[in-house]
Every structure is written in structure tokens, then in C-alpha cells.
Design brief:
The chain is α/β, with parallel strands linked by helices and 313 residues long. It contains 10 helices and 12 strands. It has a single domain, classed as 3-Layer(aba) Sandwich (Rossmann fold). Strands 1, 2, 3, 4, 5, 6, 7, 8, 9, 10, 11 and 12 form a 12-stranded mixed β-sheet that branches. Helix 6 links the parallel strand 6 and strand 7. Transfers a succinyl group from succinyl-CoA to L-homoserine, forming succinyl-L-homoserine.
């Protein structure tokens, strides 16, 4: 089934060119089903690129998904046209009176910034607190995972000495967990972060189910027992060239970055990268939409209640 997004959104033509079913609002309204209402809080500077990446993963489901885009920072940006933001993005004040089936909070280029120094930290706190009573399941990606752990468990910011960048292999720890259904015992996933998520630290300081880890990258996937909060420390949404673009950007800024590991053919940046994580990324989002959102959410969102959720699978 399709995702429902505005016809004028740049992602629409891109996804249709990839043979992804994108439905117009008029056609969606004629179907006698209730689409899942998913809110995407986009914290990345290149919003068009990021929204397209997440919409691609949300499309791989038999469910109809109605996606709304949310922004948090009203300052002008050099990476996204103001017209695009004004046309397609909502402010939190416009949606906070409503309930949603799902919320995705993207990463942000804030790996070396302390939480209290983030310009919109109070707004992040307000939205994540609001989600407890208005969203069935929230997925936190990369920096957002660190922010979510801070707000839910008061965990301090833990920063690596060197940036983690590349494609890493991960082990599945609970193959029967709904989020991992269909996963191989090991799988590849991209990382691009300074944050440190060690299994030992999260096991000691949280009650999360730790679902997938890497010897090099630490925890990749974890969730609360009621599946209402899912933490993804990497970037399953990344395109094949996203890490390459980040690497070239850092080179251009004189940062002397290390070559992303397990990424380029023969570890040579002059050769094209190999995308080895697409199947896992699509499966993760399909599982989240089905088992954490669709199977848990009320049919009538106006009757949303935290009391409906249990810790049972």
C-alpha cells in the first residue's frame, strides 16, 4: 500500500521514479480504511534529502501511511528553501492538540553539542513529553536516540573520542522480538555519530530490551518493553552516497576524517560505495509500522489512552 504525501513534495517524483506507490490525497480519501497517521520531526539541515529517505522506508508496508512533516527550528536555513518549509512543514503548535499513530524523530548534526546548549532543547523536551500521551510509538534515530535516553532515563551525554562512520555488522539478540522478525542473525547498518551507546551502560542504567549490537558500534537497536519507544542509533534511512557526501564535506572543511569503514569498494574513496543495508532498513521500518504502531494503536485516535498499552507482546 502507498504512503500519502502532497503531490508537490519533491520526494513524490523521486519515489514514483523508483516505482514506489505514492497516493494523492483525493484517491486516499476514497479508500474505506483508516491510514496510519505518522509525524516526522525532521531535525536534519538538508530536509528534502532526509524526508525522501524516510518516506522511502515508510512506503514498504501493506498499510496506508499518511505522513506529516514537522519542523522545530524557525531560523532561516541555507540547506532547504524557505518556500519548501512554509509549504510542507508544520509547527508543533499546529499539531499538539492531535493524536498520532507514530512519531519519527530524525538525527541532527549535534554530536559534539551539550544538550543544554542545543538552541531548541526545550522544544525537544516539550515534544517528547507530549508524545507520551499523544503517540502510540516513537522511533528515535541517531542523535534523537541520545536525546530520548536523556529525557526518559536521565542518561548523561556520552561522546566517543573519534567519530563512528561507516557500515558495521550487528548481531541479533532476540530473534523473536517483533522488531526483528525476518532479520538474519547478523546484518549491516550505517553509523555516523559521536555518541557512545555501549550495551553494558544501557543494560545497567535502563530497562530497555537491547535487540541488536555491534562489537565496534555498540547498541544499534533497543526498545521499551511496551514497544512505545524504539531507539535506533544508526542510519538505516541513508542513501548509498550519504556517507560519501559527509566524508567529502568533512574533507572540504579540513577536518581530516577517516575513510568510512566497510563502505567503499576496496576501501578506496575513488570507487563507488556499496549499499549493503537496504533490505534491513526496509524490514525494520515495516516491522515498526506493523507491530509497534498498527497492532497497538486504537482505531479511533480521539480515544487514545496510555492505559491501553501493556508490556505483553
Amino acid at each position: 500500500m502507498p504512503i500519502k504525501i502532497p503531490d508537490q513534495l519533491p520526494a513524490t517524483d523521486i519515489l514514483r521514479s523508483e516505482n514506489i506507490f505514492v497516493m494523492s490525497a483525493k484517491r486516499a480519501a476514497s479508500q474505506e480504511i483508516r491510514p496510519l497517521k505518522v509525524l516526522l520531526l525532521n531535525l536534519m539541515p538538508k530536509k528534502i534529502e532526509t524526508e525522501t529517505q524516510f518516506l522511502r522506508l515508510l512506503s514498504n508496508s501493506p498499510l496506508q501511511v499518511d505522513v506529516e512533516l514537522l519542523r522545530i527550528d524557525n531560523r532561516p536555513t541555507k540547506n532547504t528553501p524557505t518556500e519548501h518549509l512554509d509549504t510542507f512543514y508544520r509547527q508543533f503548535e499546529m499539531v499538539k492538540h492531535r493524536n498520532f499513530d507514530g512519531l519519527i524523530v530524525t538525527g541532527a548534526p549535534l554530536g559534539l553539542v551539550q544538550f543544554e546548549d542545543v538552541l531548541y532543547w526545550e522544544e525537544i523536551q516539550a515534544i517528547l513529553t507530549w508524545a507520551k500521551g499523544h503517540v502510540t510509538s516513537t522511533m528515535y534515530v541517531c542523535w534523537a536516540a541520545q536525546a530520548g535516553l536523556k529525557l526518559m532515563y536521565d542518561l548523561p551525554k556520552r561522546t566517543r573520542k573519534e567519530k563512528l562512520s561507516g557500515i558495521y555488522t550487528h548481531r541479533v539478540h532476540n530473534p523473536h522480538h517483533p522488531l526483528l522478525r525476518g532479520f538474519d542473525d547478523t546484518f549491516w547498518a550505517p553509523h555516523s555519530r559521536y555518541a557512545d551507546f555501549s550495551p553494558e551502560f544501557l543494560s545497567e542504567h535502563t530497562d530497555l530490551d537491547i535487540l541488536a549490537t555491534s562489537d565496534q558500534a555498540g547498541v544499534y537497536l533497543a526498545a521499551t518493553k511496551d514497544k512505545r519507544n524504539v531507539f535506533v542509533t544508526g542510519h538505516p534511512e541513508y542513501d548509498a552516497h550519504t556517507l560519501h557526501n559527509e566524508y567529502m564535506r568533512d574533507l572540504g572543511e579540513g577536518m581530516e576524517p577517516k575513510i568510512p569503514v566497510n563502505y567503499y569498494q576496496d576501501n578506496d574513496p575513488d570507487k563507488p560505495p556499496v549499499a549493503s543495508w537496504r533490505s534491513h532498513g526496509h524490514l525494520l521500518f515495516a516491522n515498526w509500522l506493523n507491530y509497534c504502531v498498527y497492532q497497538q494503536t486504537p482505531y479511533d485516535l480521539d480515544h487514545f489512552s496510555e492505559d491501553q498499552f501493556t508490556k505483553d507482546d
